[in-house]
């Protein structure tokens, strides 16, 4: 698709070699670009992934009903009145540029004696392609990432891509098992530091996400159950007890352009000055009302700061007293009456002044537990070792951990009789799983929350105040105008796209 990333990296490699004597060899052809090391490309690709995911996760956080916009800005009709076109939400180009980098690693790892990078690169490729499908439906896959060989790649059927991603992740696990990381290159992996077992667990966790996303599609039960049992037999397991985080203390720096991208966007700059956009996202009234009604105040106080935001002199602590009454959500799409001083901003689970080097979370352990819970509840005869109840309760516990709340608080809901918190008291187990997953994804995985909202229709979030007398909700994005301009015939072959009625294959109701 795009080759820009390769040339940028090649240029970086050229500049980086300037201090070496061999650079000045008169026999070197200055018109020949050097070959970039897959390890350098891989590290840069991971960093780019975190930056690229900011936009889709922000939009998903709004459209899943977790976040809305503060009233210190002119309300965005693009986001909250759904007035968008193919000129909006172009996450496509950045994703394909990033995928080209991962494909470069896959294609060149063997020749550069860096085979241990193939498995991780395939895992990341699978993750990004699933996200593209979840945003756009049919996308180029088999013809994609071939550079100038295919300038107008055909689009593949989204269901077929999903199946191909399961195969790709199987290949990734085989590569990971066969090629342990060379210790000298472990630092090129800013996710797991060369731990191939954890990469394999991440691969299985993504496979479970892909499979469960299809759980309401007719005729898929046998396929899903077979693939789940294959994962159990394979034996690597799933991410548990920790989140999949990128970067972290040894990677992000207190330097402009090198901060954790979430901290940099909605938190503070490298000098500790608060970003103007700190006043932009607000947690929704719907979210707060439900957390308070359930007595879920420990997570509430980690998801958000109390009204007025963080106390700049006491990082991680709210300006106002941290009692439930001081946490006010904003109605979804409200355009006035909810200013920063009287509403709650993104909380210490996401932003604390001075903590610029937290990992950027790609997938939470809590999400994985809820995926396992749904798998066991829907398909009781699959060979997953624990009960749906055990996975569900562990999912809540892991949510507390990720948010930084006392995990003992999760235990108080057992036997509490609170609907959708206490497994035994919850009349609809699948609904309880979906709602708890929605809470757990808040602040961390907005795109995933929006995908799950479209799949499950849960929770029943209020319509935007900007939409009067209509029930329409966005179901997908338009194909971007950049792709229409460069690959128009294949875009047009997808038919007329109505973002309010053209459902993705897994969005059956």
From TrEMBL:
Assigned keywords, A-Z: Signal
Signal peptide (UniProt feature, chain positions): 1-20
Keyword presence, 4Fe-4S: no
PROSITE patterns for the chain: PROKAR_LIPOPROTEIN
InterPro entries according to UniProt: SusD-like_2, TPR-like_helical_dom_sf
Keyword Hydrolase attributed: no
Protein name: SusD/RagB family nutrient-binding outer membrane lipoprotein
Organism: Runella slithyformis (strain ATCC 29530 / DSM 19594 / LMG 11500 / NCIMB 11436 / LSU 4)
């Amino acid at each position: 698709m795009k080759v820009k990333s390769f040339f940028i990296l090649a240029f970086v490699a050229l500049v980086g070699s300037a201090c070496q004597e061999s650079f000045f060899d008169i026999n070197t052809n200055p018109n020949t670009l050097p070959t970039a090391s897959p390890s350098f490309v891989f590290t840069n690709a991971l960093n780019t992934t975190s930056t690229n995911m900011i936009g889709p996760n922000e939009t998903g956080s709004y459209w899943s009903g977790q976040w809305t916009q503060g009233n210190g800005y002119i309300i965005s009709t693009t986001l909250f009145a759904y007035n968008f076109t193919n000129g909006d939400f172009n996450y496509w180009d950045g994703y394909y540029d990033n995928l080209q980098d991962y494909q470069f690693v896959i294609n060149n790892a063997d020749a550069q004696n860096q085979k241990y990078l193939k498995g991780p690169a395939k895992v990341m490729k699978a993750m990004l392609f699933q996200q593209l499908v979840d945003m756009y439906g049919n996308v180029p896959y088999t013809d994609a990432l071939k550079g100038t060989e295919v300038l107008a790649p055909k689009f593949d059927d989204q269901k077929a891509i999903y199946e191909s991603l399961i195969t790709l992740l199987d290949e990734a696990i085989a590569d990971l098992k066969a090629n342990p990381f060379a210790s000298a290159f472990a630092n090129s992996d800013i996710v797991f530091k060369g731990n191939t077992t954890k990469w394999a667990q991440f691969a299985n966790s993504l496979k479970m996400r892909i499979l469960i996303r299809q759980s309401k599609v007719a005729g898929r039960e046998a396929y899903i159950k077979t693939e789940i049992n294959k994962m159990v037999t394979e034996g690597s397991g799933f991410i548990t007890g920790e989140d999949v985080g990128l970067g972290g203390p040894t990677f992000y720096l207190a330097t402009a352009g090198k901060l954790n991208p979430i901290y940099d966007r909605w938190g503070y700059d490298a000098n500790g000055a608060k970003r103007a956009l700190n006043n932009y996202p607000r947690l929704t009234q719907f979210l707060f009302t439900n957390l308070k009604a359930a007595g879920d105040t420990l997570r509430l106080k980690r998801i958000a700061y109390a009204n007025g935001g963080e106390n700049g002199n006491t990082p991680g602590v709210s300006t106002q007293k941290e009692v439930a009454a001081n946490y006010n959500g904003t109605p979804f799409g409200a355009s006035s009456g909810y200013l920063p001083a009287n509403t709650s901003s993104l909380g210490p689970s996401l932003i604390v002044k001075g903590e610029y080097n937290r990992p950027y979370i790609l997938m939470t352990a809590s999400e994985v537990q809820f995926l396992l819970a749904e798998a066991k509840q829907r398909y009781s005869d699959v060979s997953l070792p624990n009960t749906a109840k055990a996975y569900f309760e562990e999912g809540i516990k892991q949510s507390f951990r990720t948010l930084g709340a006392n995990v003992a608080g999760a235990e108080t809901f057992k036997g509490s009789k609170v609907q959708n918190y206490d497994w035994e008291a919850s009349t609809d187990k699948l609904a309880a799983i979906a709602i708890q997953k929605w809470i757990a994804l808040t602040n961390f995985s907005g795109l995933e929350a929006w995908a799950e909202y479209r799949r499950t229709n849960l929770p029943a979030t209020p319509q935007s105040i900007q939409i009067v007398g209509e029930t329409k909700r966005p179901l997908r994005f338009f194909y971007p105008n950049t792709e229409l301009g460069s690959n128009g015939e294949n875009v047009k072959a997808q038919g007329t796209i109505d973002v309010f009625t053209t459902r993705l294959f897994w969005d059956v109701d």
